[in-house]
Amino acid sequence: MLSELTKKFTRVKKLHIISILLIVVLASFLIYSFFITDEESPQNTTKPPTLEPSVSIGCDQVIWKNNTELALQASTRNINAPVFQWRVDGKIAGNTQKLLQKFTIGEHKVALNISFGNKTLQANQSIIVIDSIDGVLMRNASASKNQWGFQTTYKGKNTGVKGVRISIDSSLPQEVNSCGQLSTQGLFSGEHKWNAQYQGKNIASGTFNLKEISEIKFTKINVAPGYMAGDTVNGSMILKNTGTSAIKAFEIKTIIINHNFEWMGDKAKKEYSAQYNSEVKPGEVYEIPIKVTIPEKVSGIRPAGSYTITVNLILNGKIMDTKAVNTEVK
201 forms bridges with which residues in the sheet? Predict the structure, then answer.
């Protein structure tokens, strides 16, 4: 609900050694070489879902009287050759995707009509220009296990209030986004204080507590869906500490299955494991690079086949997360 991540809070920590996964991928090609053939796996004929046409012009906003000129922009999806028509307070204001508009003090209604083919879509927005901070407040609630979230309000309604800044404990203030939302960086467990300011004045403050949680999760595993024998694999495993305590050691167990020869049982499956000892603080990202060259031939046989690589992330003997990726070598 309030979980937009603030990128500047996240520090990426890279492991500058060759991952065990490199060995896993390479070893899988070598181990399977005695039964891998040149036959290609059946192609996936499932069609991706069709996205419905949509348009957005952003959230309702409150702006201060000295900053009354706004650059409004339409964001479209799955629309070809759109025709734009902006209206501000019922009057035509422009016919391009972007609109630069000045507003006077008070509330204004912005509407955008988009025509394409024989269809029409509309997006609406409320812009309120104020000269008093009365009515500007802040809601706060848990955004994740190690983050706290904030949402600006105006007269009790969730509204983006441009210029509100929030500080947590002794950190430098951060400005909310255009929708008035902000999520903290990953925090350690315990009590934390927060304060929100607007136009140089305090509008809200409070405290919150986070429980002690040890947790680490996969963010992404980057492996291409297909390779040719002889290609170099440039991928990565990306993990993130989603708890409230520092992670100092974790284990990765990998299972590789060759689907072309699953009928051979355990011969088509291999398992590997590796231990990592490095501190990852709450909110930090840990990246393990994957880089290996696939041999063009192994014992005179081209290493072609379809593979599933399943990776388990283990902390203190407990599986925290599991990701599976598929790839094919031709």
Answer: 198
